[in-house]
Amino acid sequence: MKINGLLIALLSIFVFQVNGQDNIAPIKWEGKSTRISPNQYQIELKASNPAAWDLYAPGINFEGIPSAALVLPDASIKIISPLLANTAGILKKSKVFEGANFEIYNTDITWHAGLEFSGSVPASIQLQLNYTYGRDEEFFPGESTSIEINFEGGVAKAASLKIEKLNIDQPLVQCDGTNETKEEEAGLMKIFLLGFLGGLLALLTPCVFPMVPLTVSFFTKHGSNKKKGKRLAFMYGFFIFLIYVSFSIPFHLAGNINPTVYNDISTNVYLNTAFFIIFLAFAFSFFGFYEITLPGGLANSTNAKHGSDALGVFFMALTLTIVSFSCTGPILGTLLVGTSTSGAWPLTAGLAGFGVALGLPFALFALFPQWLNSLPKSGGWLNTVKVVLGFIELALALKFLSNADLVAHWSIIKREIFFGTWILIFLTLFMYLMGWIRFPHDSKGEKISNGRKAFAFAVLAFTLYLMPGITNSKYANISLVSGFPPPVCYSIYADPVNCDEPLKDYQEALKLAKEKNKPVLIDFTGWACVNCRKMEENVWTNQEVKNLMDQYVLVSLYVDDKQVLPIDQQQTYKTSNGTTIQIKTIGTKWSLFQTENFNATSQPWYVVISPDEKLITQPIGYTPNPTAFAQWLTCGLNGMKTIKQQQQVPQP
User: Fold this and answer.
1) Mean pLDDT of 184-200
2) Among candidates 451, 449, 428, 432, which has minimal Cα distance to 440?
3) Residue 102: beta bridge partners?
4) pLDDT tens-digit profile of 246-259?
5) How far is CA 324 from the centre of its chain?
6) What's phi and psi for 475, nearest 5 deg?
7) Is there a contact between 234 and 219 (Cβ–Cβ < 8 Å)?
8) pLDDT at residue 48 above 90?
9) Torsion on CA atoms 25, 28, 29, 30, rounded to nearest 10
10) What angle do CA 362, 367, 370 make, to 5 degrees?
11) In the predicted model, what is the mean pLDDT of the chain?
12) Using N-to-C axis directions, what is the helix angle for 211-222 and 310-323, rounded to 10°?
């Protein structure tokens, strides 16, 4: 045959991505069902084929790729009779598969299949039909379309996630001391400083540090005059800053299209797993087992464009960005995933800090070239820095795997497993710094400096500090690293000491609030949310805060939970801005609930509502100061007291 199985598979994936939109598919489908028994139905899928494409009959096998297949939204639905056509098609000789004959349809046709529900029958479902079509030498396997099927006697779903009586702009009380703008600005400055520290760390790596004196010397000695050389050096530093900041532009564009894209990025199981693998690869590269570089042709093509004008300086900056990728990539990856839940501007702030730290030294050393004499000479210490970064990459890699584990509920990296692995990583780092173990690029018999020994004992102290994390005791809450390990309730122990499991269903919390006449404290959170863990472990544990929260009905809604909803809770939802979204997972449901009612996408996000679903006070986000959070909680309770007083006033 002209097309082998692998090529068909790749083509199938490509077509699914490119042509998988219903609005551009040449064949349109609609479906209906007929009830056979209380839990069995026959579905009919009618194809409208006005352009007379060759639609391949179901049941054909293209070297492992089926010509048609049904993808059902839940495991409780089973196919009891295969997909078949109501009438026979015509045999046609294929020009793609060396003249083989296949059954095809080039007019409107109806296919049918039998389904059985093991649980309750929903009023409707969205199933996916994969089919194959073509014409002459054109061949398109894996075309996918979503078809809604209604079922007689099915249980109807809730039509809306919107709280109709809630007005986000008019809370019952206004609370002082919750200046969100100042907190947001402080958060951006903190991220900028963290990015700046990351840039300084990258500056000390073997990929960047040796370039500083060489590049500065080029500008100060090879320019037409010293003034011009300094100007070009400043321009070089600015271009480095500009290049790194520009990396955030796609995220601004994506956020304008879909505000939840940042949360989707940070909690995507496949992306986090990919980062885990990438960081492992970088770590072993830093250990010296192999080198990771971008394609040499890319660096050479930019290097060839060097010159003494502004454009040439830009390409010099771009070359540095490319050749230093193996050292800066892991730091940038950490910055990307760490800020992605908060939106594009925090990412821009972090990249700006990184770019300033990396570009500023070139300008300063050009202005004060005598400072170059005070720089330490390149040597074995650079390799030590690189190996230390390798251990840090191992620790961060585990965080990405933990994110995937949490949102997918694999139950692999429990909290104590996480701490135990970190303890082993940093204990091994201590042994390396003491010279007890070596890596390929370490010199045999190298003398260990006092500074390196001091740093080794600092690492040992940190390792000992982590030890209580593997115990089931009140000391297991390690505040210095809060946000990195899994939640305290995600434990290997049957009854974790520090775990106070909240409700996770809004309707259940609302029912309890009505019974107890208490306000509802909604905690929009995420399994992979670092700031959420910091709030839970550092703020919620404050005794004043804890006493105030006991007066609420707390419900934690996880917006990144990938667990599939029961089939009778899945639905196609039209948002307030007209966008149609398939609600299939718990996370999608609560994410939409947050955006639809409170116009917010970041986590943590805290909302106080009354039992009759009125907004008591303005919602707030990450508040690391326990006193400020306690003030906000107190304001919410005062608002609830006002509501209770109004309830006691006799109505005229």
Assistant:
1) 77
2) 432
3) 92
4) 887 877 776 554 55
5) 25
6) -85, 0
7) no
8) yes
9) 130
10) 95
11) 82
12) 170
Chain centroid offset of residue 526 CA: 11
The tokens describing 633, both together, are 């909680």
Residues shown for the chain: 652
pLDDT in tens, 537-592: 899 999 999 999 999 999 999 998 988 888 878 888 888 877 778 888 899 899 99
501 phi and psi angles, rounded to 5 deg: -65, 120
Both tokens of 183, joined, read 């907190």
Residue labelled with tokens 């109505």: 651
The two tokens of residue 629 are 């959070």
Confirm if 610 and 519 have CB atoms less than 8 A apart: yes
Structure tokens at 427: 């204990």
Q: Do 240 and 355 touch, CB atoms closer than 8 A?
A: yes
- Identify residue 301 by its one-letter amino acid code: S
Distance CA 595, CA 258 (A): 11
484 SS3 class: coil
Residues 6+ apart with CB under 8 A from 272: 337, 400, 401, 403, 404, 407, 528
Give the model confidence (pLDDT) of 341-389 as tens digits. 566 778 888 888 888 888 888 777 767 766 666 666 656 677 888 888 8
Q: Which residues contact 609 (CB under 8 A, 6 or more apart)?
A: 163, 166, 519, 520, 522, 615, 616
Instruction: Name the one residue in this structure whose structure tokens are 């963290």.
Output: 194
β strands within 559-639, DSSP E: 571-574, 580-583, 605-609
Helix, strand, or coil (residue 520)? strand
> 360 to each of 129, 227, 234, 292, 332, how far by Cα in Å?
56, 18, 8, 26, 18
Q: Does domain 5-150 have CATH number 1.10.287?
A: no
Q: Higher model confidence: residue 253 or residue 191? A: 191
Judged by DSSP in three states, 106 sits in coil
State how far the Cα of 128 lies from the Cα of 43, in Å rounded to an integer: 13
Confidence band, pLDDT 50/70/90 cuts, at residue 481: confident
Tokens at residue 130, please?
A: 């994969």
So where are the chain's domains? 5-150, 191-379, 500-648
DSSP one-letter code for 207: T
Q: Which residues pair with 113 in a beta bridge?
A: 43
Which segments of 106-192 are extended strands (E)? 109-117, 124-135, 138-150
For residue 571, list its beta bridge partners.
Answer: 583
Question: How far apart are alpha carbons 534 and 480 in whole angstroms?
Answer: 9
> Which superfamily, per CATH, for 500-648?
Glutaredoxin (3.40.30.10)
DSSP per residue over 496-515, as a string? -TT--PPB--HHHHHHHHHH
553-558 and 520-525 beta bridge pairing:
parallel
- Going by their DSSP bridges, the two strands 40-48 and 109-117 should be labelled as antiparallel
Q: What pLDDT is recorded for position 226?
A: 67
Cβ contacts of 83 within 8 Å, gap of 6 or more: 45, 58, 59, 68, 69, 70, 111, 112, 113
3-state class of 322 per DSSP? helix
Give the span between the Cα atoms of 322 and 139, in whole angstroms: 40
The reported pLDDT for the residue numbered 4 is 40
**pTM of the full structure:** 0.72
Helix H or strand E segment including 36:
strand 28-37
Amino acid occupying residue 222: H
Residue 42 sits at φ, ψ, to 5 deg, of -105, 125
How far apart are the C-alpha atoms of 610 and 517, rounded to whole Å? 8
Q: Give me the residues paired with residue 520 across strands.
A: 553, 609
Using the predicted structure, report yes or no on whether residue 305 has a pLDDT greater than 70: no
